[in-house]
Amino acid sequence: MNPTLHQAPALDRRRALLAICGSLAAARVPAEQPAPAILGWHFLARLDVGSQDAMGQRQEPSILTRTQALGPRARAEVLQGDDDWRPGDFALTEDGGRSLLVYDLASRRVERLTPDTLEHGADAAAGLMKFKLRDLDIGVRRIGPGGRVAGMATTHWRIERRLRAQASLLFFKESLSLSDKLDFWFADEFADTANPLAALTLSLASVMLRLTPQSRAKHRAALDELPGLNPVRLHCELSTEDSDGRSTNTLAVEVTEPKRTAIDAGMFAAPTGFASA
Questions:
Q1: What is the number of domains present in the chain?
Q2: Which end of the chain is more exposed for a tag (fewer CB within 10 A), N or C?
Q3: Better-predicted residue by pLDDT, 58 or 108
């Protein structure tokens, strides 16, 4: 008898059993489902800086960033910059912009920026200059509906600050006064979304008032009254008057082209190969 013909029915039965077992296994183990997309925000943010004094008006180059944010986490990449922020440089935040890790691609260095580190930098720049606070007034108020910014309904808030102080360096003394106005436009749907460029701008604007422990405490208390630290529009007008006359600096940040989109959380990981500044 031909052995091949004798074995054929057994082989067929074995194939059938394997096919049935495979079908049962496939029924028991569901197909792997793709991970659900995590929705965050993608938007552009632009910073414009200007100044005016006895020498005239000046306008600094605008800084434009592209930001992807997931709640308090965000990555802002510079698309258009200046000598300090060049295209390709980027910043990361994990805490809604209260602290920023700023990455410089050219030098492969990373710097941590917070209101405190900026304050320490200002103290170092001032050197032996001392400040004595004479008068300080800070007011916070909710102005009301702020219209639509980037297609979102907003609420307009304002902080107004007035300060008189005396600066001294050895035998030199100078009286100065500061009067600042900080306007914020907050959107409810954007309230918990980190905006690194606005956070950095607000920190820079705050440094001017952080001259003494008393002024720092009052300034922090004023910020705590705001509904958040991530406005979709921010406008700061900072005026100083001393023996050289009056000078005014303006800083303005505005969000444009916001859209809800899937965000890859991996982009918030700190990259390797950067040395601390």
A1: 1
A2: N
A3: 108
- The pLDDT value recorded for residue 107 is 94
Q: Which residues contact 142 (CB under 8 A, 6 or more apart)?
A: 155, 156, 157
Write the CB contacts of 47 (distance below 8 Å, at least 6 apart in sequence): 62, 63, 64, 65, 197, 201, 251, 252, 253
Instruction: Give the span between the Cα atoms of 67 and 128, in whole angstroms.
Output: 39
Q: How many CA atoms lie within 13 A of 13 on its CB side?
A: 5
Q: How many CB atoms lie within 10 A of CB 75?
A: 22
- Specify if 2 maps to a domain: no
pLDDT at 254: 95
Report if residue 87 sits inside a domain: no
Residue pair 264/224 in contact by the 8 Å Cβ criterion:
no
Let me know if residue 138 belongs to a domain. yes
Tell me the two tokens of residue 156: 């307009």
Query: Which residue, chain included where needed, has tokens 């994990």?
Result: 94
> Positive or negative, the Cα torsion across 212, 156, 47, 200?
positive
* pLDDT value at residue 238: 86
Sequence-ordered list of residues with C-beta below 8 angstroms from that of 174, at least 6 positions apart, any chain = 166, 167, 168, 242, 243
pLDDT in tens, 244-260: 788 898 999 999 999 99
Residue with tokens 């100044």: 51
Q: Which of 2-6, 30-34, 91-95, 151-155 has the lowest mean pLDDT?
A: 2-6
Q: How far apart are CA 249 and CA 57, in angstroms?
A: 10
Q: What pLDDT sits at residue 57?
A: 85
The position carrying tokens 């991530």 is 230
Residue 232 lies in a domain: yes
